[in-house]
UniProtKB/TrEMBL annotation:
Lineage: Bacteria, Bacillati, Actinomycetota, Actinomycetes, Mycobacteriales
UniProt feature, compositional bias: Low complexity: 341-360
Protein name according to UniProt: non-specific serine/threonine protein kinase
Coiled coil: none
Superkingdom, taxonomy of origin: Bacteria
Organism: Corynebacterium glaucum
Length: 419
């Protein structure tokens, strides 16, 4: 279904502008006219609408996320699979993705990587506690909100652990982060997500993924033949304890890994405490697709509207939508997960230092005011009397001084005659 600015989903969610485009769906910024708030709508691409496999994945994501409510997970508010529009209404994230942060700043020092992983693993642990397996852990699905909170998103490949004892599907997921079980069809457990999370930690520390191949299949099968190397082999200064964390998380045999995200998180906290890593606030990407979209004010009236009535998908002309259409962003701006390097700002932000304390915005300089001058006048009666007395005193002093230095002080002294 092709959507334009001003179109309406379910006669409730008015499209404001596209944020990003993925392989399966496009994410739009919308306004919920019933509640008067901004949300994100993940709308399945038209070519997948009638595919039962993709419809099932979308429905599975909605149901999985509806079971979860956690600060480190992206909240899902609504879902619809009626007609030609299949969409998911989610919390609007105004920051960016971990992928975009890595593109901007490169590899992270241990304290920064630990902070990112702590947020991601906390959200994943909440999903694991409900018996769910994410199956697509990667930097593109880790979001950083404007308040610097790390959130895990995109449960489109999620499976209940009870349903994942055997995989008959084709290889699904992103090839760089697949677990060995996803490649060879072995039973999947929570440890499969742990493996992918270990690859993410490796990439945070080194700026690269551990395996490569001439083809996607060769790339995928590389993890069946070799272990993930220690990050310190690529970046000097990575502590040995982080090498051990990565090695345990990415062991080829699932039984040799951390059992689930909770166990991985506890091990990470132990390492951070042993190394005395400082607390760190994860920076928000400065040039993300979400940030660019948020820079444009919404074109939709944010006031809540009455309960919706039956009507067509396109909002009527009398709806609270600006008549002026906003041009759709360029294709490069619509992709949430762009291929290649993200566009860099004019000056790259500094590497992962603790963010400077936010200063209040500079106030414009105050306009200088003319000083108030109180004029002195001698026109008052008292002032005139004082002036006269002072004038007579000065005249008298001058007269006495003239007399003193004239005849009064110097007289004629008679000459002395020696006898």
């Amino acid at each position: 279904m092709q959507l334009a600015v001003g179109d309406s989903l379910d006669n409730r969610y008015v499209i404001d502008r596209p944020i990003a485009r993925g392989g399966m769906a496009t994410v739009y910024r919308c306004v919920d006219t019933r509640l008067g708030r901004e949300v994100a709508a993940k709308v399945m691409h038209e070519q997948f609408v009638h595919d039962p496999v993709f419809r099932d994945r979308f429905r599975r994501e909605a149901r999985a996320m509806a079971q979860l409510s956690h600060p480190n997970l992206v909240n899902v508010y609504d879902f619809s699979a009626q007609g030609n529009a299949i969409f998911l209404i989610m919390e609007l994230i105004t920051g960016g993705t971990l992928r975009e942060l890595l593109d901007e700043r490169g590899p992270m020092p241990p304290h920064a990587a630990a902070s990112v992983m702590r947020g991601m693993l906390t959200g994943l642990a909440a999903a694991h506690a409900r018996g769910l397996i994410h199956r697509d852990i990667k930097p593109d699905n880790v979001l950083i909100n404007a308040d610097h909170r790390v959130k895990l998103a995109d449960f489109g490949l999620v499976r209940a652990a009870a349903e994942a004892t055997h995989s008959t599907d084709q290889i699904v997921g992103t090839v760089s982060y697949l677990s060995p079980e996803q490649v060879d069809g072995s039973p999947m457990t929570h440890a499969s997500d742990v493996y992918s999370a270990g690859i993410v930690l490796f990439e945070l520390l080194t700026g690269r993924t551990p395996f490569a191949g001439d083809t996607p299949i060769a790339h995928a099968y590389a993890r069946l033949r070799g272990d993930v190397p220690p990050p310190s082999a690529f970046i000097a200064g990575v502590p040995k304890l982080f090498d051990e964390l990565v090695a345990t998380a990415t062991a080829r045999a699932p039984e040799d890994r951390f059992r689930d995200a909770t166990e991985f998180l506890h091990a990470l906290d132990d390492v951070a405490e042993a190394l005395r890593l400082p607390a760190y606030t994860v920076p928000v990407p400065t040039n993300s697709a979400a940030t660019r979209a948020a820079a444009h004010p919404t074109n939709v009236d944010m006031r809540p509207s009455p309960a919706p009535e039956e009507g067509p998908q396109r909002a009527p002309a009398a709806a609270n939508v600006a008549e002026t259409r906003v041009a759709t962003p360029r294709a490069s701006e619509e992709r949430l997960f762009p291929e290649g390097q993200a566009q860099m700002p004019a000056q790259a932000p500094p590497a992962y230092h603790a963010p400077a304390q936010q200063m209040p915005p500079a106030q414009p300089p105050a306009q200088p005011q003319k000083p108030r001058i109180n004029p002195v006048t001698n026109r008052g009666g008292v002032g005139l009397a004082v002036f006269v007395v002072l004038a007579f005193a000065v005249i008298a002093a001058v007269a006495i001084g003239g007399w003193w230095f004239g005849s009064g002080n110097y007289g004629q002294v008679p000459p002395l005659i020696a006898v």
